[in-house]
Amino acid sequence: MGVNRKFLDYYGFHSVEEVIGKTDEDMGWHVSPDAFREDEINVLNKGISTHEVPGHCLVNGQNKSIVASKTPIYKDGRITGILGFFREAHDAEKLRDTHPDLQEIDHLTGLLNVRGGMNVLLEYQDEYMLHKQDFCMISISIDNFRELQRLYGSAFCDQVLFFIAELLRKRFGTECALLRHCGDEFRVIRQVESREEAEKLEKAVYREVAGIHMIRNKRFTLYPSTGLALYSEQPVAGQMLRTARERMQANRRRHIARFRKNHPEY
Questions:
Q1: How far apart are the C-alpha atoms of 258 and 262, rounded to whole Å?
Q2: CATH number, domain containing residue 75
Q3: Mean pLDDT for the chain?
Q4: Residue where a domain stops, chosen among 75, 95, 115
């Protein structure tokens, strides 16, 4: 429907008439357009916004690295279109350098990254020191993530990670700090009054992630493992991180052993 002057200048167009009414595929901007097209379908059909999704586009004969964001446009409560923008990847990095708060955000999921997670963890730790307010950390990862990469490719798995992040944000974003640690590992942090409350949260996180069965019209099953640690068990931030991760890895080993026992053909 329209583009701004900056968009036209970037691609070297003289008029919006060269663009309006054409798809990315018509313009031939992307060597691999599937990921961006699926993003747009999810925005239009499900209202799922995307934030700085990495990709490439052809400009002046070069395959530029970009990060693209898209959000739905609503009219009378219905999704009627998409508003999108992108920047070159190195520009996004420069923006993070000049805006320190952006350095704490994971570029793929929009959750906190490791740096942001450590900063918020120190705030929780301070509340414990001052007021004895306990808190828990839940580590969660996907046992079969590497298998999904082999079957469907990295672009699809990036969408899986983004979808998990969106689900966690919608379900727990108002009461928990959420971060992507690395790879397919996420962490959930929340203040709690008891171990029972923490265990209830751990089960809820597990159910939400295990309940994902379709993305991009592909049916699959996620096999998550979780690990729970309370700060009061051993009030040292680094030890809490290690404990939650070790318990998650122990659960993963049990899950894999059980699966192999029930499926000896693998």
A1: 6
A2: 3.30.450.20
A3: 85
A4: 95
